[in-house]
Amino acid sequence: MIEAREGAEMSTQMLFNEIFTIVAQKPRWTYIRLDSDGQEGWVDAKMISPMKSKEYTDHKALLKTAAVVAMPMAYAVSENNGQTIPLTAGTRLTNYKDGRFEVLGVGFRIDPSMVCVKPWELNQQNLLTAVRFFLNVPYLWGGKNAMGMDCSGFVQTVMSLFGKSLLRNASEQATQGRAVMKLSRAQAGDLVFFDHYESSDKEEQSAAKITHVGIVIDRERVIHCSGRVKVEKLDETGIYSTEQGGYTHRLVAIRRL
Q1: Phi first, then psi: what are they for 71, rounded to 5°?
Q2: Most C-beta atoms within 10 A of its C-beta, which of 76, 77, 204, 240?
């Protein structure tokens, strides 16, 4: 949350087993900084579990080699009390082996088919396998799970399956990797960044700001979250929507991780 109050705007979502640093506290609310991408904000204090210094250090080391939930939604069962916990794609599973993982001494069971044990190679075939279950997930500002995602949350989640650590927002992600100068040189898995296509005026076009991001499937298609996760036409101008009968986003940059 950007403010310490109910109903405040959500800026991002924290997944199960993520770690963070406490920056400030007030009654009911805690201001945190996520280790994964540096995002900061207020969370309801009852939603987090404080860790001792050694627990934090040990857990941080385990996360570096953790398995990752690959499906938009999976369920883990606690060996402690038998309760079921929903987990979303990108959730990191520490001490994972053969359908079992452990968090701070508590064991959990999960369907192995839902888990990516090692990062996949980033190629078109694996990319299509990774994204097919995300199609039609609705857009949600600040979201990064199967109930709703924004454009950069979708890209951040999918890229985690390939061992790529991305910052949270599209404008931040555009600083990562290296530039690909032309779409004709792009390949599956490259990130494409856009401004909204609102004017043909050259002066306005020169003031382009990155507001949107997607993933290249091939040089004619992009998968992105705008309204919902979907595949649309891509060319040197930008994203062409057959649904809307025109361009919706103007291509600004291409980056390869």
Answers
A1: -90, 155
A2: 76
